[in-house]
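Appendix B. Raw example, untouched.
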Amino acid sequence: MKITLIVVGKLKEKFLVEGVAEYLKRLKKFATIELREIPECRTVEEEGLKILSLVPQNSWLCVLDVSGEALSSEEFAKKIAALNLNGISNLTFAIGGAFGLSEELRRAAEFRLSLSKMTLTHQMARLVLVEQIYRAFKINRNEPYHW
């Protein structure tokens, strides 16, 4: 499986940099991971176009969206397993900047995922997302995670 993460902005806090790096390292056991960072743009429309230009061809696109669907970790794992079962092995997850997503990017996505009803910084969302992707692989392989 190939996973592309397209994110706006660079991580600034040391603990976030280290956490994301740790989960990206762990994920390499299960998938090829590519992280594509783009700088913050002047408008969400400009960011949306830039993000869309970086989505690999034939990739299933999931955007993190506060108004998206909230899934449990188990439901998220099942979604990834079902995609794989249906021959979809190229997944892209996009996290917009501080001001959200453009409508064009929302429409282009096959799935809109909400990590929480609470507001998270887009930097914190990056850490939570990579941890949940890692957890999904562990769940799908029936491997222990934290016990």
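End of appendix B.
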